From TrEMBL:
<protein>
    <recommendedName>
        <fullName>Winged helix DNA-binding protein</fullName>
    </recommendedName>
</protein>
<dbReference type="InterPro" id="IPR009351">
    <property type="entry name" value="AlkZ-like"/>
</dbReference>
<dbReference type="Pfam" id="PF06224">
    <property type="entry name" value="AlkZ-like"/>
</dbReference>
Amino acid sequence: MNELSLEEAQKIILQSQKILSEQKLKSPLEDTLSNIEHLGYIQIDTISAVERAHHHTLWNRNENYQSSHLDTLVENRQVFEYWSHAAAYLPMRDYKYTLIRKHAIGEGKQRHWYDKDEVLMSEVLKRIEQEGPLMAKDFESTKKKSAWASKPTKRALEYLFMQGDLMISSRKNFHKVYDLTERVLPSDIDTKTPSHEEYIRFLIISYLRANGIGQASEIAYLLKNTKTYVSKILKEMESDKELMIVQIKGTKYYSLPNAIDLLNQSFSKKRVKILSPFDNFLIQRKRMLELFDFDYKIECYLPEAKRKYGYFSLPVLWDGKLVARMDCKAERKTAIFHIKHLAFETDFSLSLEFKIAFQKEVELFMTFNACRKLELHQVTPNLIKKDLQDMAIFPSF
């Protein structure tokens, strides 16, 4: 068993997540695909206070990322939309591992959040067969209580999507365009349903590749009825030397055998990264608290009076640590980027090195959000506000 310091564990995690990676392939589009394939999924989210989470997460790993990349990769049939622990873009090469969930939903073994209306689903499917790709709004009707009212047909579309009859062939203004699965899948994709053991091994290897170290509960995060099987297969893989155990602060984690090699690879921690709340790196809040001592909760789902940091606070990474959170709003019509609340951790000391890196990253993030002017409204603790006043991007607060 390898004993790792907390700092060593953090380096392995950050290296595995490729947040600070400077590796470049032949083109920005290839970099984007490589990141999706390495991470295993990119969560999709609709909140648009700043650039949506799927774009934000990829931009943080590819400075030349363009929002058109995802559309292009979907069009090229290299990625597709389905469910990970949440709605996500997934690598097309991993398609077959979605079949277990799809079959379970189709056979009624796993409950979907909508009731099954087989008559309406059949009608919806027939229309798409005959007319080609359609959006939910294509089924709208002006008739009251019509079977084609948008809400029931949207549910039917989603049910057909979740059980695998339909796929998302593209999006138009962020609206899903549904088509028959056989018209979307590349002809060379493996569609053989994996065994349950193959599926669990896939979950384990995918998670550890992207996250460096992990426990059964983390690997099975929001995947119902999998933790027991994950625990069993983890022990078998460890016994067969496919995995190794590392210990951090007295707690055992699993890792791939080559994870320790990441400690010998250099990477620059001296860059600020402004992260999405739905970034793969920090989506598991308990893990962030235990391994990075960062107690993070997204507050957009709370009443305003109960928010401590703001509606959509973005964690700030610096020197391998999570040191602050920024509640941001990109006002695109006026090109003004609002930092409504910039809150630093209580033990953080502002250095000149941080200020230079922070200014650079904020400027890049503003450009990414199509903004030219910055307004900073509140800083916590207030003493740090004075230390920021000599920064060119904060001329008049």
